[in-house]
């Protein structure tokens, strides 16, 4: 994973100055390879790590992991992650994620943060999420 990520980062640095076709193609190849490895890694985590955690961690310990994530992650990143999660969520998952937020946070997401997320996605992808 680390080598794949390093290759993708190097490809970004090579592509950035001129955004030339050869560098673009190398970047796409590096990102495609990294995505493949990342997907395999995440599938392994879901298959192996989550059942292990369910057997070994008590609810307060599991909740402490989430609390640590929330308190140690900068708010702009949390909002970006929320947008990414909601973008790929089905309607049931979408309702569950938003339902777990306090009402003021849901309103803030809908009125302010979602439009900012959409704008960021349009900037990166050229299309709306």
Topology, please?
Elements: H1 2-15, H2 21-56, H3 59-72, H4 75-88, H5 91-99, H6 103-125
Helix pairs in contact: 1-2
Protein name: Hemerythrin-like domain-containing protein
Organism: Kitasatospora sp. CMC57
Oligomer: single chain
Q: Quick one: biggest sheet?
A: none
Terminal Cα span: 27 Å
Number of helices: 6
What's the overall average pLDDT, rounded? 93
Helix share bin: over 70%
Number of domain units: 2
Tell me how many strands there are.
Answer: 0
Helix/strand-derived category reads mainly alpha
| Sequence of secondary-structure elements | HHHHHH
Shape: globular
Fraction in beta strands: under 5%
